[in-house]
Specification:
mainly alpha, rod-shaped, 67% helix, single chain
């Protein structure tokens, strides 16, 4: 939700910079977009974090062994 809000603010600032012909507003919008890009977290849980006894590395190594 926070990412969406920051992106909307950035787009509005860039659009306002074209309407009012004030380049600093577009700069603020680009800074907000930059902050949104680097504060976004990936909340997808990996197999290692699910408490599985088989890690993704161990699964890959088992599948890699061809007998």
């Amino acid at each position: 939700m926070k990412l969406l809000l920051l992106i909307v603010v950035a787009v509005v600032c860039v659009a306002l910079s074209f309407v009012w012909r004030e380049p600093w507003i577009g700069g603020v919008g680009l800074l907000v977009a930059f902050v949104a890009m680097f504060t976004d977290r990936d909340d997808v849980r990996l197999d290692d974090e699910r408490g599985s006894y088989e890690t993704t590395k161990s699964v890959r190594s088992m599948r890699g062994r061809r007998h």
